[in-house]
Amino acid sequence: MIKRSILTTFLGLILLAGCSEEQESTQEELVKTVNVETKEIQKQPFERYLKLVGTVGTPNDVRISAEVSGRIEKYFVEAGDDVNMGEPILKIDDSQLIRERERLEAVTAQAKENYERLKRLYEQDSVGSEIEYLNAKYNYEQNKASLEAVKVNIEKTTVKAPFDATVENILLEQGEMATPGAVLVRLIGKNRLKVTAGVPSRYSDVVRKGDQAHVWFDFQEADTMRIPITFVGKSIDVQARTFEVEMRLPPGSKDYKVDMIANVKLRTLQQDESIVIPAEFVFQSGEDDIVYTVAENADGNKIAKMQKVTLGASYQNEVVVEKGLNVGDQLITVGSSFLQDQMRINIVDQRDGQIAGTNF
User: Fold this and answer.
1) Average pLDDT, the chain
2) Which one of 28, 57, 106, 321 counts the least CB within 10 Å of its CB?
3) Bridge partners of 331?
4) Distance between CA 128 and CA 345 in Å, rounded?
5) Could you report the per-residue pLDDT of 219-251, keeping only the tens digit for each?
6) Exposure pattern of 160-193 as b/e (b: 16+ CB <10 Å)?
């Protein structure tokens, strides 16, 4: 009876030891397995962009100056009004010029009559000297030129819009004295607005006239415009080390204002077919860049293979892999940060709310 009890106890200990070893083996196997998600490598287009800050401007942002002296008699417009090319903006008092015109008209008429009389006597009757005839001729021509100059100045007393524009500022008010060169009004042209931006000089070989630029404003980011580059500067700003580019804004909108800040995005690289992966799945091993791909061990189990890669251009969270990956490879994505080379993996289609990691 005692022997049977001892035997039973001995067999029980053996069974417990076997179960313990099996449990430890199972736990060890689970610890070495990581749930992961994968992505099949395919070639795809890759583009890299440069984001800049630009400024809205216009070639028709001008300050109209007086060309004649006189008191400002009246304005035909107010600040903020739109004017068409040739439309009058203001009138400078021309009363003094009109009196000068009347005087010159009389003097010129008298000089003309004297010139024609001496010319007739000299050519037909040979009366008088040639010098008298020529002096009368030159005197008439001088007075005639002076009269024409006064007429031109009278026309200049009515200041007209040189192009379709908006009156931005009135700088001399009605009743003030205008002198030649004095700024009267500021005009900003309509439908010729442009965005100007400075591009770092290192991109001088990739930005070309005609390239498409993405332009948007903070108040309408959703309405990004794709408009061509209309001008690329040929010189570098020695201080900023940038060259200028311009994009003409579409006509007809009053939402854009001169000196408004614009967001500009230029494409600096385009590759039609590249292996592109998210940069978050690239890791460092010593001095090497590595990724993990799916492989199988000798027992047919799926394992993580540490793959050395050579990286190319990058943009935002994407990077081009120039060497180390091939089309059809299964890149380990979610869960890759928990991996080591040759570690067992379990591929899942979806995480189903679970965090990928080591199974314990």
Assistant:
1) 85
2) 28
3) 39, 293
4) 123
5) 665 678 899 999 999 999 999 999 999 999 887
6) bbebbbbbbebebeeeeebeeeeebbbbbbbebb
Look up residue 168 and give its two tokens.
């931005």
Nearest residue to 85 via CA among 176, 170, 216, 189: 189
Q: Give the CB-side neighbour count of residue 46, counting CA atoms within 13 A.
A: 21
Asked if residue 68 and residue 181 are part of one domain, the reply reads yes
3-state secondary structure of 352: coil
Identify whether 142 is part of a domain: yes
> What phi and psi, each to the nearest 5 degrees, are found at residue 95?
-60, -40
Helix, strand, or coil here: 78? coil
Please report, in angstroms and rounded to a whole number, the separation of the first and last CA atoms in the chain.
Answer: 44
Domains in the chain, number: 3
Do 204 and 237 contact (CB within 8 A), yes or no?
no
Give the total residue count for the chain: 360
pTM: 0.63
Query: 77 - beta bridge partners?
Result: none
124 and 168 co-located in one domain: no
Helix (H, G, I), strand (E, B) or coil at 278: strand
> Distances in Å between the alpha carbon of 131 and those of 121, 139, 141, 314?
13, 12, 15, 88
Per DSSP, the three-state class of 99 is: helix
Backbone angles phi, psi at 210, to 5 degrees: 100, -15
Q: What is the pLDDT of residue 223?
A: 73
According to DSSP, the β-strands at 283-285 and 225-232 are unpaired
